[in-house]
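Is this the right way to post structure tokens for a design question? Let me know if I should format differently. Anyway, here goes:
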């Protein structure tokens, strides 16, 4: 027995009713708890440029100054958190390229990893199990792919002839604590 498809106008009206109900309940909760109502859960509406407000765009979709700014922010995280915390022991079997920004695949994977880290290390959005989920579902597979013998860094630490690609230092110079 097949069921007829619902009328799209009725579905749209139901969705609007649900949105209004959620907004009313959010306002009621805010009034009862004495807090300011925050944004409704779920994706935020699209902004004037078509991008969803509140969500950073994937780095490979950016261009020009936006791309450069996002890459700088990503590099800060990679070199300040990821490399010293997780990647200090590179080897022939666990490759890493200090010039990872020259590898588009590495940029894409690391950016996705960083976006997941931002969400999953915030107890307000994911509770206290977020870091464990980040390690299991995001960090481990990403690093496994990047450091694989056939990964993007495959040719980066094979020998001294590859001057432009070498092992990472334990703590990148921009993050060292020694100063003038």
């Amino acid at each position: 027995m097949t069921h007829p498809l619902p009328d799209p106008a009725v579905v749209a009206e139901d969705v609007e009713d649900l949105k209004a109900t959620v907004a009313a309940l959010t306002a009621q909760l805010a009034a009862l708890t004495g807090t300011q109502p925050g944004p409704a859960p779920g994706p935020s509406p699209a902004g004037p440029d078509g991008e969803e407000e509140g969500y950073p765009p994937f780095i490979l979709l950016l261009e020009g100054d936006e791309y450069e700014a996002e890459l700088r922010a990503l590099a800060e995280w990679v070199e300040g958190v990821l490399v010293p915390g997780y990647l200090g022991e590179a080897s022939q079997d666990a490759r890493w390229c200090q010039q990872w920004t020259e590898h588009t695949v590495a940029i894409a994977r690391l950016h996705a990893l960083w976006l997941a880290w931002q969400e999953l290390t915030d107890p307000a959005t994911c509770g206290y199990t977020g870091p464990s989920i980040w390690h299991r579902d995001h960090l481990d597979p990403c690093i496994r792919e990047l450091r694989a013998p056939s990964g993007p860094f495959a040719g980066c630490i094979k020998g001294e002839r590859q001057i432009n690609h070498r092992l990472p230092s334990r703590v990148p110079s921009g993050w060292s604590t020694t100063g003038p």
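Format looks fine. Someone answered above. Worth noting: The CA atoms of residues 117 and 134 lie 6 Å apart. Confidence is low (pLDDT under 50) at residues 38-52, 166-173, 175-180.
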